[in-house]
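One chain shown below:
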Amino acid sequence: MTLSRNAVAGIALTMLALTPAHATTVQFQTVMGDFEVNLFDKKTPETVANFLEYVESGAYEDTFIQRSVPNFVVQGGGFSFDLEEDTVKAIPANDPVTNEPVYSNQRGTIAMAKLGGKPNSATNQWFFNLADNSKNLDSQNQGFTVFGQVTGNGMAIVDAIAKLKFGNFSGDDFLGDFPLENMPIRNYSQEDYDDKLAVTEDHIVLIQNIVVLDASPDTADGLSPKLTTKSNSGGDGGNSGGGGGGGGSFGLFGLLALAGASLFKLKRRVTARV
């Protein structure tokens, strides 16, 4: 018997309801492959609880990776994709969570995105660190909260996402008034982009769901994440944008994305990012 994705998610949520609310291992189910993330609920309890609220409510079902900056981060958790209408909607945000900068923004960790200059503004958006971003993100904006770590061969999938072409798919010609200036794209050529071909689920990096695999609060005990390098003096409190994205090989649409970003930000700046 083959179960639908919704049925599997329903079973996972039912099992979660029968276990303690300290779920430390989750699975990201994506069109590029599935991978696991261990959450640090003992050291970043409020951040993990916040993340799991979105997981348990199904808010991350049929979402997508919205931002890719080479050698820096890939970011998601901000928008859902209607598979029938090929339209985008912003995920409704819960109350912001208190910043918990305990661990360092090392390669393979997941951290919360937030508004520039507002340390305690993280809600639903998160990002994976593609490199050691500690010099920047451990101090900037009072530090970005790392709340989990990719395990197993999961970074091979994250790296594959990061190697995709990316471009500016915001605006009326594409997906609407959303900050999608550096969105990774699949099965989509330069000619498609020039012709403004409609973006469908075949083109986005779809996150079909995020589900809980292990609800034990002890599953991260065997990991040794590095502590934050943040000093007591804090950081610059600013927003680097793509400050850590230098030195990499840009995707086919990379320059198009960067060229269109500055103008679009004048219209829409209130978005959580790093």
